[in-house]
Amino acid sequence: xxxxFIFVILVASVGEKFARAQNDKADGAASPVSSTPxxxxxxxxxxxxxxxxxxxxxxxxxxxxxxxxxxLSVEVKTIPTLAAxxxxxxxxxxxxxxxxxxxxxxxERSTTVASVSDFFVSLGDGKSPLILAxxxxxxxxxxxxxxxxxxxxxxxxxxxxxxxxxxTLKHISGRESPSVATSPTGTWRPFPSLKTYHSRQSRYxxxxxxxxxxxxxxxxxxxxxxxxxxxxxxxxxSIVGLVGISLVENSWHWYSDLPLGIALGYAFGKIVAHPxxxxxxxxxxxxxxxxxxxxxxxxxxxxxSLQF
Length: 308
Description:
Elements: H1 2-27, H2 40-45, H3 57-60, H4 62-74, H5 79-94, H6 96-109, H7 111-123, H8 127-143, H9 146-173, H10 194-199, H11 210-225, H12 232-249, H13 258-273, E1 288-296, E2 299-307
Antiparallel strand pairs: 1-2
Helix pairs in contact: 5-13, 6-7, 7-12, 8-9, 9-11, 9-13, 11-12, 11-13
């Protein structure tokens, strides 16, 4: 996280110089009317997406993001959601050994499955969102596109916010990854010391999944900033699901590590994309992505459901 923070600070410093240059150029224009009118339909769709973000917003907004999540977690309307996540997680823990064995077996037996799985795991490791943010930032500066710049800034912001919370929860839970499990569903060693945690992270960092949280957060920021692109939801949330399955195939995580990560990523994505606070992060009418244990006469498994 420290390397990520230093990297985004450097990116933001360069971005500030470009932003100032763009503002100076705009201030020096003679005509009082913009030479590049904004389409009326864009204004109607995204009335709050046209403002230019300040270079430090992705860091300066973090305390507010944390506060919003904290307030959300203690509201009465959140109780059903928290209860559902808890029940789902406990149900998945009960079947983690069986579902992991089946899922990992596909990875071990097929080089094709292994290659595809490795690819989707790489999408969730944080580098892809950083590259995306850089590309959006570069395009935004070149084309004077405030929405692209805003999305780039929010992508960096949501990565930091999600990462800080998930890392805190990992240090609290101390759950083993499947690759080093000493019990059928992984031993839990709460509150390991910092030295112990970092000396053998795979013994303590399984719960919740940061890969799935940052992937969900990035997709949510994109969907919220570009709602007119109808393909973003099916493609984005399908990627989230494939990243989750791949993390289990690769022995990085159990299925029960995913629900809380998905919920955190979605909530932070909504909070960061709407700093004005006019959207409910718990709106269930937009997308429903769920995992549930499944058992029948053929054996055990996991059912992945995606509705949008």
